[in-house]
Amino acid sequence: MTKLFGVAAEFASPDAVRTAAEDLRQSGFRAFEAYTPYPVEGLDRIIHPGPKPLLPLLMFAAAVLGAAWGYWIQYWGEALNYPINVGGRPYNSWPAFMVGTFEFMLLVTIAAGFVGMLAASGLPRLYHPIFEAKAFERASRDRFVLCLEAADPLFDATAVRSRFERLGAERIDEVRA
């Protein structure tokens, strides 16, 4: 016997799924997610009303660290490890290091953004229990699915099912993990 992951409801319009999400949020539910064929205006703020992710801050910190690291690598190579006097310029010639510093900063920033995006979205994840829901089959084409997870402290499968029926869901499925 598999464990209950949650209850998924299929809605026909973005307004219906937005209304259902607002109802769930106002009722105190926190562990629910929406699956839509395209972004629905305002739905993200209803489902995740908290502070924004730290990804921009992480990328800024990576940019500063990458620039410092890139400059240090060039300085170490040119001035400390293998100093060669080229045309009488100083060993620590910062204008000559700027292109390499900028490129290294971009490399580290992009890598941090990519890794941060994967961590924030929980990827790579090859399987999710919502894939088993019948209501989810049309979520990438023309239907809007809302799944309330059993992990929510207020979750009661029967009450959730009747709430989704009252909100106008066209199809309601129990999702097994």
Label the structural class. alpha+beta
Provide the succession of SSEs.
Answer: EHEHHHEHE
Unreliable runs: none
Percent of sequence in beta strands: 5-15%
State the strand order across the main sheet: 2-3-1-4
**Number of beta-strand segments:** 4
Quaternary organisation of the protein chains: single chain
Radius of gyration from the alpha-carbon trace, in angstroms: 25 Å
Q: Work out the helicity level.
A: 40-55%
Distance between the termini: 10 Å
Count of helical segments? 5
Q: Largest sheet, described in full?
A: 4 strands, antiparallel
Can you tell me the overall shape? Answer: rod-shaped
Mean pLDDT: 90
Mind sketching the topology for me?
Blueprint: E1 4-11, H1 14-26, E2 32-35, H2 43-47, H3 55-81, H4 94-121, E3 144-149, H5 157-166, E4 171-176
Antiparallel strand pairs: 1-3, 1-4, 2-3
Helix pairs in contact: 3-4
Walk me through the structure.
By secondary structure, the protein is α+β, with helices and mostly antiparallel strands. Helix content is 47%, strand content 14%. It contains 5 helices and 4 strands; from the N terminus they run E-H-E-H-H-H-E-H-E. Strands 2-3-1-4 form a 4-stranded antiparallel beta sheet, covered by helices on one side. Helix 3 (55-81) runs antiparallel to helix 4 (94-121). The radius of gyration is 25 Å and the shape is rod-shaped.
